[in-house]
Amino acid sequence: MKIVIAASEVVPFAKTGGLADVGGALPMALEKRGEEVIVVMPGYKKVHNLKNPEVKKLRDGVSISKIGKGIKVYFIDNDEYFNRDELYGDKTGDYKDNLDRFSYFCRKTLELLKEIKFKPDIIHCHDWQSALIPVYLKNTLAEEPFFKDTKTVFTIHNIGYQGLFPQEELSKTGLDWGVFNMDMLEYYGKINILKGGIVFSDLINTVSETYSKEIQTKEFGFGMEGILNKRRDSVSGIINGLDYSIWDPSTDKSIFKKFSLKTAEDKYENKEGLQKVCKLPAKRTVPVFGIVSRLAQQKGFDILAEGIDAICRLDVQVVILGTGDLKYHQLLEEMVKKYPKVISLSLKFDDTLAHRIYAGSDIFLMPSKYEPCGLGQMISLRYGTVPLVFKTGGLADTVNDKNGFIFDKYSKDELIKTIKKAITAYKNSTKWQQLMQRGMKCNFSWAESAKKYVELYEKAKAK
Q1: Residue 43 and residue 77 in contact, taking contact as beta carbons nearer than 8 Å
Q2: In sequence order, which residues have a C-beta less than 8 Å from that of residue 49 and are 6 or more positions away?
Q3: pLDDT digit string (tens) for 297-335?
Q4: Domains in the chain, please, with CATH?
Q5: Is 44 within 8 Å of 77 (Cβ atoms)?
């Protein structure tokens, strides 16, 4: 099959979140299966500042690089739109011309495919930034012979981000007013680009099976539940894979001592190393709870903040790495002053420390209110760090009572109750070792996810 991955961020070129990881890993997993894949993304300033991998100018408006064995990555260049420090906005908020920027990206992607004569079976679009591609294909390009047999798959990574713009900006997209109605792009008087992707793509999927069902409910649908329910036969979920070339304790150069399922005992050297660098007492008998997260309400920091004082009075140590909302920064800094031998806080992004937390913690805390997929729980399982999660989205699809701890009522009291349960379990070292080993045996490789995507593409082709 000829497949185009169209995404606004792709590792190793530009990243703000999990979308970039998928954008980089999925094409390589598809290539390994023998599919013919290319990637198209915007040519941001940071892309052109890269030395490795090398990015070369193909012509005015298009640059090119390579990932995997032979996957061409094309960049849609435009200094006016993409020569900026950030991808979507700055500290004052989203860039005001994001509709111009990403409608340009979508139009130019389709023009590029014709120019390079890459006639795709599937264009796989990701999130609202590429959602106009299926809209153009079913409207302005509906009679274009080149795309006659092309089908689209649209992946929603986080339905909270929808690309909402004033209706008077519709002309910027090049679409006519016929698409501005409640069954298409209109949403409470505004243009909703994500909704366009949902309406006009051939198949829709999300990054976990549970999340695909959750977004069809009022609680998690962010206003899109009605339109998704209408298309429920076209909605599915595929869990993201994990790149085990990066996340593997037996080869990880960032951790204090490499270990595997056979040498799981060496995990405790990582615990001791973590306690030392985090200036916590080096006690093997005290369970270390690790958190690597954005400090935000979505990630469960509302209930964690409510319960943190009570948690710190338990027989635990807590190591937190991340940045986010100022109120959580301030609260956690107060807790560090109050409980300096219990809690360690690093308000930054630190890749080495992240690896060390996954390797050295006993329990990985991920109480997200909603989590479309989540990678943290999958990484922690690989490192023999037992996840403790709220039952939602990808967390519900990957963690169960055989490999972790789950609470299903979102509250401070349920969180503390589950933490206490984990502390009690930790004290039984034989059972704990069994729990760790079951987690380390879990396999969330991209090979499995890519196989499911190929099945999804075949389904789209057959429509």
Answers
A1: yes
A2: none
A3: 999 999 999 999 999 999 999 999 999 899 999 999 999
A4: 2-241+447-462 (3.40.50.2000), 264-442 (3.40.50.2000)
A5: no
- Tell me, yes or no, if the pTM score tops 0.85: yes
Distance CA 302, CA 148 (A): 49
Buried b (16+ CB within 10 A) or exposed e, 287-300: bbbbbbbbbbbebb
- In contact, 315 and 345? CB cutoff 8 Å: no
3-state secondary structure of 315: coil
pLDDT tens readout for residues 410-456: 999 999 999 999 999 999 999 999 999 999 999 999 999 999 999 99
Distance between CA atoms of residues 120 and 20, nearest Å: 22
CA distance 249 to 285: 22
Secondary structure tally for the chain: helices H, strands E: 17, 20
- Please, what is the angle between helix 412-426 and helix 429-440, to 10°? 110
Question: Does residue 357 contact residue 292 with C-beta atoms inside 8 Å?
Answer: yes
Tokens coding 254: 């960032």
Phi, psi of 112 (to 5 degrees): -60, -40
Burial of 128 (0-12, 13-18, 19+ CB in 10 A): buried
Q: Is 282 exposed, middle or buried (0-12, 13-18, 19+ CB in 10 A)?
A: exposed
Radius of gyration of the chain (CA): 23
Q: How far apart are CA 292 and CA 294, in angstroms?
A: 7
407, 372 contact by CB (below 8 A)? no
